[in-house]
Amino acid sequence: MTEHAVDTRLTVRNLTRQTVLATGLEVADTGPKRNKGLLGRDGLETGGGLWIVPCESVHTFFMRFPIDLVYLDRRYRVRKVRNAVGRWRISACLSAHSILELPAGTVVSTQTQKGDVLEFSPPPA
Predict the structure, then answer these.
(1) Which end of the chain has fewer CB within 10 Å, C or N?
(2) Global pTM value
(3) pLDDT tens for residues 1-30?
(4) Nearest to 24 by CA among 52, 57, 49
């Protein structure tokens, strides 16, 4: 699922809850993109986010804003969620294959929980 064009934005749906987590998700599937993550940004727009593939842990050192984290296994099943993770934190889930970094409040507003199944697709035309 990491064969995306450089500027491809994805839509992410929670099939279990019938909610949408993001409509403009960026993919960080190369070393440089994964290393940079969201560093240097002032925030995430509503519907935005970053999918880091592969990834088991992230840090929020030098971040300027809190983020929600959704840890996924290879089948896009949610393994762990973290809400509004602030600056100077480390978070990990060793059973995860990838991580969604989303605007703070997304996990609560979409009711996303451990065990939910997500689906990735190109955004609607």
Answers:
(1) C
(2) 0.92
(3) 444 444 679 999 999 999 999 999 999 999
(4) 49
